Amino acid sequence: MSLKITIDPGSATAPFEQLREQVADQARSGALPVGYRMPTVRGLAAELGLAANTVAKAYRALEADGVIETHGRNGTLIAPAGDTAAREAALAAAGYAQRARRLGLDQQAALAAVHEALRAAYDD
């Protein structure tokens, strides 16, 4: 088991997003198991030919998404994803529901907005 990342410099997708997406996909699929130690920011940047800030940005996004956990000197590890992802999704959904209600949307209109946003996000 090892991290397999390919950055396409010609892609319209930013390198940090390519990295974030590939790590997240590998973590979700189990190719990178819980507890897998990620390379250092500088090490991975050198390996991929990217700026350290680009890798750091991807790591920050992955940590915010609950995909990785940073443990200081003990390194950055793949986090247990199920609970974190579900918890984050529930928090986001609750926040959206409260905001939609404050805006005066009924449930049908709020759900229609969610369906449209999901369609746009998942139908690349």
Number of DSSP strand runs:
2
CATH topology (fold) name of the largest domain: Arc Repressor Mutant, subunit A
| Radius of gyration using CA atoms only | 17 Å
Order of helices and strands: HHHEEHH
Percentage of residues in strands: under 5%
Strand order in the largest sheet = 1-2
Rounded average pLDDT: 91
Poorly predicted spans: none
Assigned CATH architecture of the largest domain: Orthogonal Bundle
Classify the helix fraction into a percent range: 55-70%
GO molecular function: DNA binding; DNA-binding transcription factor activity
Keywords: DNA-binding, Transcription, Transcription regulation
InterPro entries: Tscrpt_reg_HTH_GntR (IPR000524), WH-like_DNA-bd_sf (IPR036388), WH_DNA-bd_sf (IPR036390)
Domain HTH gntR-type: 13-81
Structure characteristics:
two-stranded antiparallel sheet, 2 domains, mainly alpha, elongated, 124 residues
Task: Tell me briefly what this model is.
Keywords: DNA-binding, Transcription, Transcription regulation. With 124 residues, the chain is mainly α.
Write the layout of secondary structure elements.
Blueprint (H helix, E strand, L loop, with lengths): L14 H15 L11 H8 L3 H13 L3 E3 L5 E3 L2 H22 L4 H16 L2
Antiparallel strand pairs: 1-2
Helix pairs in contact: 1-3, 2-3
Describe this entry's structure for a reader.
By secondary structure, this protein is mainly alpha-helical. The chain folds into two domains: 15-79, Arc Repressor Mutant, subunit A, CATH 1.10.10; 82-122, no CATH class. The protein has helices at residues 15-29, 41-48, 52-64, 81-102, 107-122, and strands spanning 68-70, 76-78. Strands 1-2 form a two-stranded antiparallel sheet. Helix 1 crosses helix 3 and helix 2 (41-48) crosses helix 3 (52-64). The longest helix has 22 residues, at 81-102. It is elongated and about 50 Å long. The model has no long low-confidence stretch (mean pLDDT 91).
